[in-house]
Amino acid sequence: MSLLGLALITPSIAKAQSVTPAQDGTGTIVNHHGQRIDIEAGSPSANGENLFHSFHTFTPGSGEIVNFLAEPTIQSIFARVVGGNPAIIDGLLQISNSQASLFLMNPAGVIFGPNATLNLPAGLTVTTADRIGFDEQWFNAVGSNEYTALVGRPHAFAFTQPQPGAVLNQGRLSLGPAQTLTLLGGTVINTGELSAPGGQITIATVTGEQMVQIHQDGLLLNLEIAGPLDDGTELPSITPLSLPELLTYGDFNNANQLVANEDGTVSLWGSNIAIPTAPGTAIAAGTLTVANTTPAGTGGTMAILGEQVGLLNAELDASGTNGGGAIFIGGDYQGQGTMPQATHTFVGEDVAIAANANTDGSGGQVIVWADHTTEFWGQVSATGGLNTGNGGFVEISGKENLIFRGDVDVTASAPNGILGTLLLDPDDIRIVNGTGGLNDNELADNQILFGDGTGTFTLSENALESLMGNANIELQANNNIILENLADNQLTLAPGTGSITWTADADGNGIGDITMADTNDTISAAGRDVKFLGENLQLGTITTTAETSGSLTLQANRSINAGNLITQSDQGTGGNVTVTAGDNLTIGNILTAGPTKSGNVNITNTNTNISTNIGNILTEANNGVSGTVTLSGAGGELGNVTGTLVTDDSFVDNSNDFDDDLDRIDEDVEDDLETVDEDVDGFADEFDETDDSLISFEDEFDDDGEFETDFEDNGELEDGEFENGNEFDDEFEEDDEFDDEFEEDDELDELPNQVVRTSLRDNNANRALTAFEAQRAQEFSNYFGRDLNATELSPSQLQQLLTQVQTQTDNRSVIVYVKAPKSPSIGAATSASSLELLIFTASAEPVSLTIPNVSRDELFQTIGQFRSTLITSVRRGSKSYLKPAQQLYQWLIKPIEDELGKNAIDTILFSMDSGLRSLPIAALHDGQQFLVEKYSVGMMPSLGLVNTQYQPLDGSQVLAMGASDFSVLQPLPAVPIEIDVINQLWSGQRFLNETFTRQNLVQQQQQTPFQIIHLATHAEFKPGAVDNSYIQLWNEQLNLDDIHTLGWDRPVVDLLVLSACRTAVGNPDAELGFAGLAVASGVKSAMASLWTVDDVGTLALMSEFYHQLRDTPIKSGALRAAQLALLNSETRIESGQLQSGATRQAIALPPEIAIAGDVDFSHPYYWSGFTMIGSPW
């Protein structure tokens, strides 16, 4: 790779002649007045509305002002550059005396340098076209023009060259409200800032010898690509420069953000990803905003269009106070309309796209499209207003192929808002196990938009599982949807209220099935309405069980073969089950249940005399009436029906004729119970669920209605509750398979979840602590697959530990155990919908608290919204995270504030329940301050699993290792500086890139037992098995289940730091990996981040943390001090340097990092994800 930066070749252009008029009869006059360059005269159109200028040279430098003077009647100014060299603009463009728009045309190419700015009263269009059309006349880029005939508004841009010129922007091009900014050429690359509040931004490219037609409203978003212009006119032309050639012009003091490669491609600074330079390529990096912050404003419109469209390290914002705008990337909805469609579209993982309604109104529209292949790795938010409005609409689609690994948020923040929709609709969808799709290696060549992709592309299991639950999701394929074998046998979609629709054969041609390769697998979508639509359906178990269950719909033109269908609601009404098939219909068991009413079951076979095999249908309502069961067939006959129906006061509609093989059982019937088979063969076993649902058993009804239970596996009763329905006696009879007496003590041993709740409500701290610790230890032991040898602690021992730490460090700590609300079983008391807290301080009596009226769904939805608003980078300038931050503070912190104050607490150590371990607790907010402004915070998996022995870090050495370049993953250009800073602050060893290997890591620690190990590299905590999570070394991935083999517990390492990690949102397995990092590695404490903070932000926090660690006695205190330094803007990027406090020397940054400009890190996105895990001391 060779760097052909803009500073390497500098044409000898005198400053005084940076702008010169063309001597071609246009009449342009250029007057230089120091730094100001006045442009006067020119040629007007006959109606006096258009003014034309012609330049030989147009290269205003930094500090220069090009001032177009025009009469007030002028509506548009058109300027062309005819000298054959590119227009290089690094100064200010402005218009005086007129409200005119500015059009700049130069086929050779146009560059806006890093100092380029605008002071224009209206819009700006920059193009490398050869001609601009007005009705039947053309404004030619070269040659003569009949200027008086060029009246009205432009309707077309003609590109007569086979390879049109390029437009490159590195500056800050900002227009006024509601204006239009357009960059149109053969290749367009933006690495700077484009801004038109509430207006319109268009980046559009053409492949050559084409014409771009504009509709009469003048909006380029309505443009059409027509064939080549052939009006018989032959004109002189300018040979365009290729993009690499264009990069050799200008002198921008090495500020160029593009690198020209020897193979003819270009790359962004700090990225190994090559960008094609062929015509038709549109690249958007940097910041593009049409956001509207006026009191009643709605977001504007943005389009990135071309044959190849790529977004890298970009922020696109079309948000508005009263409604989101629209963003089109690669085309319009499903490739329709007149907007040109991309063949390939790529959106990188460092891209954030927003079309939010910030206060009122609905979220906007975001379309990501390609006729061939779309790769999406970024983040999109189109959320509704906080007060009123609905979620927006997001489509991410490749007509033939789609790779989707990103995050989408279309929630409705308002109390009565309707959720938005995410649509994924390629030709075929294949969902594969774990995190990797078959085409993840498309990035291994570090190229994008080079025709990647042949055959069916895939969605990963984890990509779907990470999508937020409060969004309507549509998976739509013209052909097939295939769910491959899953290692964990379950696709667990996020709980919520958003619907999920799976549609095969979307084009209606009769070809398109939905198939689960392993029908023993389960799709779980707690609380969500789920639909499967296709020609044929082959499914496993589908469940929407939750506090408020969703409904299930299966509809096939031909056959359905499905496992168990479960819509159990723990509160209210069970979800409806609707099944419609044209041919054979086979279903396992159907369960719909709820405390007040079960859902309705509707089974329809639209053909006659077709086999309909149904397992057991159970409709149950403990405190009310079961729903309606309806079975119907075409022509009034439902043929060959078999199955068993179990109802509780349910109405069965059998108005259609069906065979006698369908049996009905009513639970409240005693002597007159009639059934062909004496047993209901194991239906409850088929409905085996985990936490808070039916316990697996076989049930039989004897002839007097009594209920007996056979326990298997030696009578062990798993974690959960044994609920008896209202029609059953409270007395359970023991049969010969249950030999042991069921005593209270046995219950305590087997049901720690219930023991925790009961003990807390009874204020039995000793028993609650024992149960909490046992439950936590078992969770982590199960996840890591080995006995972690937890230490048993009594309350007095715990308090003794806190007292000892206080004596050693003068730090007063509190330990808070948090138990999330459970999903109450059918008929359970409403008190189950509460949050439980247990608090231990050094000297006061333990305190247990119950926070009522907090449902599990509400808690987790609020956490999801909180994380989303923090992580979505385009919101870093907003405070939309405050509403969920304050609500979570009211639930988790407000109830214990008195205890914190009475005991003068400095540090809060949380032991969180599943689902809470990925909460950025430091950013909770009381309405005035963040939690971190008052306390140090930390997270422990279980106190009995933590090495709590305090050891000062004075004189400790640091082993600092990391990697800045990777073959597939995003580069981390700030890592070398990060490691150097640590090495300057602490003694030790440093190793980078090729020397960052497992062998060297083990060898260095064996030779010199370092107290601190710092790994500056990618790490991911993923769903599924522990070996799915990893730390990326130079040449391999270190799986989380292997980390204990490194010997960091012999002797014990005091602190492990991972500076660039990411945790799957809301996934319990990923949370166990993150929260168990210290346990897994054998170290006392670990520091890591819940999400990937950008490279420069990580550098800022790490440099501050290691500085504070030298003077702060406890690790969590050093992290707090570093977080406060970022929050208070004491640590920041300014003038190309990392400023770290008033008294310390600034750190100079290399150009690839300094190019980002000044950066403020006060937003909690940058600092709140970093968490101290294990011992905070």
Topology:
Elements: E1 19-21, E2 28-33, E3 36-41, E4 43-44, E5 50-58, E6 65-69, E7 76-81, E8 87-89, E9 92-96, E10 101-105, E11 110-112, E12 117-119, E13 124-127, E14 131-134, E15 137-140, E16 156-159, E17 166-169, E18 172-174, E19 180-185, E20 187-190, E21 193-195, E22 200-205, E23 210-213, E24 224-226, H1 243-246, E25 258-260, E26 266-268, E27 274-275, E28 281-289, E29 301-305, E30 308-317, E31 326-329, E32 344-347, E33 352-354, E34 365-370, E35 373-376, E36 379-381, E37 393-398, E38 401-404, E39 407-409, E40 421-424, E41 429-432, E42 458-460, H2 461-465, E43 472-476, E44 481-483, E45 490-493, E46 500-503, E47 514-516, E48 522-525, E49 530-534, E50 537-538, E51 541-543, E52 552-556, E53 560-562, E54 565-568, E55 577-581, E56 585-587, E57 590-594, E58 601-605, E59 612-621, E60 628-633, E61 637-638, E62 641-647, E63 651-653, E64 657-658, E65 662-666, E66 679-680, H3 683-686, E67 698-701, E68 707-710, H4 744-750, H5 752-761, H6 765-784, H7 795-809, E69 813-819, E70 834-840, E71 847-852, H8 856-871, H9 882-892, ...
Parallel strand pairs: 3-6, 5-7, 6-9, 7-10, 8-11, 9-12, 10-13, 11-17, 13-19, 17-20, 18-21, 19-22, 20-28, 21-28, 22-29, 28-30, 29-31, 30-32, 30-33, 31-34, 32-35, 33-36, 34-37, 35-38, 36-39, 37-40, 40-43, 41-42, 41-44, 43-46, 44-47, 45-48, 46-49, 47-50, 48-51, 49-52, 50-53, 51-54, 52-55, 53-56, ...
Antiparallel strand pairs: 1-5, 2-3, 4-5, 14-15, 14-16, 16-23, 23-24, 25-26, 26-27, 66-67, 67-68, 69-70, 70-71, 76-77, 77-78, 80-85, 81-82, 81-84, 82-83
